[in-house]
Specification:
It comes from Alcanivorax profundi. The chain is an alpha/beta fold. It folds into 3 domains: 75 residues; 96 residues, Beta-Lactamase; 205 residues, P-loop containing nucleotide triphosphate hydrolases (Rossmann fold, 3-Layer(aba) Sandwich), CATH 3.40.50. Helices cover 37% and strands 20% of the residues. It has 12 helices and 14 strands. The strands form 2 sheets. Strands 9-8-10-11-7-12-13-14 form an 8-stranded mixed sheet, with helices on both faces. The longest helix is centred in the N-terminal third of the chain and has 20 residues.
Length: 386
């Protein structure tokens, strides 16, 4: 057999899966309630029966592969199962049945797996969403959700997706890179780390800035470990990714609207509520919208040492983006007042960069030291070697 992505094999897998599902129904086996070992044995036997009845010439190796793939279809997420289980893979991107990409160490590459057809992709998406109480159909063709293991999944289907159903998965990891690992990989230096630790311990308000996939959450997680143990931390995220080894953390998570368009709880509402929960520091996973108003005001009114991330390609761009978010969120103030608010609230910006070979690094760390003439006066605390 020419491998797992061979078209003939995909057709065989489809027929075998349907046969096994029929056998499960006939024997009254409930997949969600059955013992895992019992299911493995049942599927293996059913696959063997199907191959024998149809006299399909398969080697022992191919038969074992077919049994594993069929089991993934029955109790898992089909072709995505081996990708989800591989700790080296950070992102999984399904652009269509035969176009699956993965990101490993910051580099995108084609994965050696494929789906049978568009219906197969949609079937896997719906299996992901079923335990979450979310739906995906023509009336609701786009969904953003979090899997039980913390991974984020976004799915979109026709008519919005013109070339077929698409899935984007950002895998959750509890094993964020340590400071030693980041230094060893060249992502930062010991001098840079010392500067960041000093900023955290001296309760500087910090924004981690960077483009897509530059490691903003990893950096936020790293520096948060140096918050003194006696302080109370409140984290606010769209999908919980921070793993703080700290004795006093309260984790809050936003909630999307339900199928009727109701029940949404925004990051801004959670920041407002967090201020009533006696936090020493607020850590906001990412600034995307109007929550920036409350965050800056919190930083200015006794919650020094708070942190967040923002999507931006340079420190100057980060400041401009914050200005833009304030403006579109209806913050009614003059341009001068807005710049003074930002300059007095923020103390340090950590700029991250992803290099062409996929490596990530801290490109610079700047301190905002406002002057009468320049509310965005920057002092460079660290710059990486170009």
């Amino acid at each position: 057999m020419a491998g797992r992505i061979d078209a003939e094999y995909q057709q065989l897998k489809d027929r075998t899966h349907r046969w096994v599902v029929e056998r499960l129904d006939e024997d009254g086996v409930e997949v969600n309630e059955a013992n895992n070992d019992v299911l493995v044995e049942f599927v293996r036997n059913a696959v063997g029966q199907h191959i024998a009845l149809n006299r399909v010439p398969l080697s022992t190796q191919d038969l074992n592969q077919l049994s594993r793939d069929t089991l993934d279809e029955v109790i898992g997420f089909g072709p995505l199962e081996p990708l989800l289980a591989d700790p080296k893979i950070n992102d999984i991107l399904v652009n269509g049945p035969d176009s699956v990409f993965i990101e490993v160490a910051g580099v995108l590459q084609k994965a050696p797996v494929r789906f049978i057809n568009d219906d197969h992709v949609i079937r896997v998406i719906r299996r992901m969403l079923a335990p979450l109480g979310r739906r995906l159909d023509e009336s609701s063709p786009m969904v953003d959700a979090r899997l039980p293991d913390g991974s984020r999944v976004n799915a979109i289907i026709p008519p919005l997706a013109l070339d077929g159903p698409s899935i984007s998965i950002r895998k959750f990891t509890r094993n964020h890179l340590s400071a030693d690992a980041l230094i060893e990989s060249g992502s930062l230096t010991q001098a840079c780390l010392d500067t960041l630790i000093k900023a955290v311990e001296s309760r500087r308000n910090i924004i981690v800035s960077g483009g897509t996939g530059t490691g903003k959450t990893t950096m936020l997680n790293l520096i948060s470990q140096h918050i003194p143990r006696e302080e109370r931390i409140l984290t606010i995220e769209d999908s919980a990714e921070l793993v703080l080894h700290h004795p006093h953390v309260v984790r809050l998570e936003t909630r999307p609207a339900n199928t009727e368009g109701k029940g949404r709880i925004s990051a801004r509402e959670l920041v407002v509520n967090a201020l009533r929960m006696r936090p020493d520091r607020i850590i906001l996973g990412e600034v995307r919208s109007s929550e920036i108003i409350e965050l800056l005001q919190a930083m200015n009114t006794g919650h020094e040492g708070s942190m967040s991330t923002i999507h931006s390609n340079s420190t100057r761009d980060a400041l401009v983006r914050i200005e833009t978010l304030l403006a579109v969120s209806g913050y009614d103030a003059s341009e001068q007042a807005i710049s003074r608010l930002i300059g007095s609230a923020l103390d340090v910006i950590i700029q991250l960069q992803r290099l062409p070979d996929g490596r990530r690094r801290v490109s610079e760390v700047v301190a905002l030291t406002p002057t009468e003439q320049d509310p965005y006066h920057l002092d460079y605390l660290y710059r990486s070697d170009p």
